[in-house]
């Protein structure tokens, strides 16, 4: 089967490409490299440097590739504070690009799409763990843009009798066992890479953003899922959707919550390194607790997590150390 992976040069997209190729899929990557990296591109994948908002170019790619069995759509901006400062940019990239991708998919008669969404669509949850049917009230433009994109996809698949799988990610962490791919770039905001950068001296200090939340230690609680487990769910989701001609929405997390301070202390323990840190004020748009109910993915897709937090910490540490040595 042939699968198009948008954002396949980015963090999660590149891991999906590796997993798909390992399972024998033919993979076509579309990425404009605005935030992806050529180093992340799997050598066996076809690669097109194309912006999804250029619908004619996307149609050209689809025409060249012939029959495409499905799309995994990872491309998008994901930084919450940046979305608060630049909401128009986020809606343009995260919503308009989806509209154009669906237009091109119509043109090529592609029937299946797997979409990378986020737990940020829920906002400040009324009840935890969060179920897929719970109230969705995003508290930042990032979450709002993803919820709008979900609506576009659901409307398109209903109108065209096509199939979608929407995955709402909680906190994705860790790197590929090969050590070849991971989160690259400067000014990272993901919690675990920031902790590790402080551990290896890449940043002066790890900032614990907010210690006055209504949680067990005052810091935010998050549900961490290893990227390897996450992309396995995508493959199971695509295969389920194609086989059963069905659509679905699924949370992806571990179902276990760790506070920011607990993650920091676990990293100190696992790495045996004194990680410099300081307590600072809250970050705009951060809910106190995000914790997934993953029963739907488990029952429907037969999916479960296999990786623990300590594995995420160690793999992230090894990847960052390799980057330092390059």
Automatic annotation (TrEMBL):
- Keyword Endoplasmic reticulum in the entry? The reply is no
Query: What cofactor is needed?
Result: NAD(+)
Annotated SUPFAM superfamilies: NAD(P)-binding Rossmann-fold domains (SSF51735)
Lineage top rank: taxon? Bacteria
Molecular function per GO: UDP-glucose 4-epimerase activity
Q: Which UniProt keywords apply?
A: Carbohydrate metabolism, Isomerase, NAD
Q: Where is the NAD-dependent epimerase/dehydratase domain?
A: 3-253
Question: Which GO biological process categories is it annotated with?
Answer: galactose catabolic process via UDP-galactose, Leloir pathway
Q: Does the keyword Isomerase apply?
A: yes
Report the EC code(s) recorded for this entry.
5.1.3.2
Q: What reaction is this protein's catalytic activity?
A: UDP-alpha-D-glucose = UDP-alpha-D-galactose
Listed pathway(s) = Carbohydrate metabolism; galactose metabolism
What is the uppermost EC class here? isomerase
Q: Would you identify the family this protein belongs to, as annotated? A: Belongs to the NAD(P)-dependent epimerase/dehydratase family.
NCBIfam families from the xrefs?
Answer: galE
The annotated subunit structure for this chain is:
Homodimer.
Give the protein name, as stated in the record. UDP-glucose 4-epimerase
Which species is this UniProt entry from? Mycoplasma todarodis
Primary gene name: galE
């Amino acid at each position: 089967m042939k699968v198009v992976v948008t954002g396949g040069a980015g963090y999660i997209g590149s891991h999906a490409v590796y997993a798909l190729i390992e399972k024998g899929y033919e993979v076509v990557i579309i990425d404009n490299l605005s935030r992806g990296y050529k180093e992340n591109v799997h050598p066996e994948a076809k690669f097109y440097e194309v912006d999804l908002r250029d619908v004619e170019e996307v149609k050209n790619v689809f025409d060249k590739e012939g029959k495409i069995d499905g799309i995994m759509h990872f491309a998008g901006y994901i930084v919450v504070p940046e979305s608060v400062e630049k909401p128009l940019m986020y809606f343009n990239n995260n919503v308009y690009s989806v509209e154009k991708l669906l237009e091109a998919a119509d043109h090529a008669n592609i029937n299946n799409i797997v979409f990378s969404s986020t737990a940020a669509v829920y906002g400040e949850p009324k009840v935890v763990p969060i179920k897929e049917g719970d109230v969705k009230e995003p508290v930042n433009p990032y979450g709002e843009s993803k919820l709008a994109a979900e609506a576009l996809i659901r409307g398109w698949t209903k109108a065209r009798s096509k199939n979608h799988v929407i995955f709402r990610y909680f906190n994705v962490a860790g790197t590929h066992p090969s050590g070849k791919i991971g989160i690259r770039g400067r000014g990272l905001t993901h919690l675990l890479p920031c902790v590790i950068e402080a551990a290896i001296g890449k940043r002066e200090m790890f900032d614990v953003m907010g210690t006055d939340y209504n949680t067990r230690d005052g810091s935010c609680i998050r549900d961490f899922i290893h990227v390897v487990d996450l992309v396995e769910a995508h493959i199971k989701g695509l295969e389920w959707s194609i086989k059963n001609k069905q659509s679905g929405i699924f949370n992806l997390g571990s179902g276990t919550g760790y506070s920011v301070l607990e993650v920091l202390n676990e990293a100190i323990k696992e790495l045996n390194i004194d990680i410099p840190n300081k307590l600072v004020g809250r970050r705009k748009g951060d809910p106190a607790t995000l914790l997934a109910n993953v029963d739907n993915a488990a029952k429907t897709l037969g999916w479960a997590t296999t990786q623990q937090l300590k594995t995420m910490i160690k793999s992230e540490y090894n990847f960052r150390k390799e980057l330092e040595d390059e």
